Amino acid sequence: MANCDMIRRWESCVTHGNFFHALHKDVGGIRAMDKLKNRVLLVDDEAMNLTALTHILKSDYTIYVEKDGQGCLDTARDLKPDLILLDILMPAMNGFEVIAALKKDDITRDIPVIFVTGLNNAHDEEMGFVLGAADYVNKPFSSAVVKLRVKNQIQIINQMRQIKNLSITDPLTELGNRRFFYSQLEQEWNRAKRQQIPISLIVLDIDQFKHFNDTHGHVIGDLALRDVAQIINKGLRRSTDVSARWGGEEFAVILPDTALDGAETVAENICALVREHKFTIDDKTSAKLTISAGVKSIVPPRDDNYSVTNLVSDADKAMYMAKDAGRDRVCIMD
Hints:
Layout lengths: L12 E3 L2 E3 L6 H8 L4 E5 L3 H11 L4 E5 L2 H11 L3 E4 L8 H10 L8 E5 L4 H10 L3 E4 L4 H25 L10 H18 L3 E8 L2 H8 L1 H18 L6 E6 L2 E7 L3 H17 L2 E2 L5 E2 L3 E8 L9 H17 L5 E3 L2
Parallel strand pairs: 3-4, 3-5, 5-6, 6-7, 13-14
Antiparallel strand pairs: 1-2, 8-10, 8-13, 9-10, 11-12
Helix pairs in contact: 3-4, 8-9, 9-10
């Protein structure tokens, strides 16, 4: 099962009839590899099948393996692979039950599933498609067929992802846009509420940016916005922290599993980095800018007395408190 601190990656092989698996804790290494390859989760209770599928696919994809249905559900939630190859006949929880659970979960419902199974009658195949399977591979499987069917699904996934990325990315700063921000915030809020862990939100606004634009022109203003976006990302500490351009000269940072002290430190650091930066006007001239930040941290209550909308409103109010207090500072909403 994968989480922010440890990703369980099973590498399987069969030697003298024994099934060996290794636990890898190098999260950074895995993430670097994942940036180059799509991730495929293989789920089968038979070691020989896992080994054969791994051998077929490992040169083109980053492979993760689970031996049962519950392991599949846990790893799919934590790792969110691009594709799942799922056996049907497994003990405790069969493949039909697993895909039904995957499709009920907001986090995993969009992960395509290819059934790899010895069940090849029309009724079973129809049931799989009704439950949401993307494709079928029959056992005993051909390596060529496995490769082609996986490749087809991965191509669809990557094309859809490219379209989605264009729709949620701010073209100027290359940060996530407002739509992306609210999608991520809702997801992290629900996770924090479910796990009863803190979530923090920072809203940032460039001080007196209209005057900067009026003085130096919108082309220089756009360059300054790009610089601020890069500075904000530089000020973040973890890959799970999320930055977005909220609109105009406003930005937002989502800090999952972060209490007030940590959020305040991040906000102060970003303000300091902006304050120290020299914004280029021309070859001989630079200018200074500052930023005001508002912070709100909370463990979401299980009831509905405080919502994600309240979180955004409170962080925004805290940012305006920083403006009213003289700008270039961080204010916290209790």
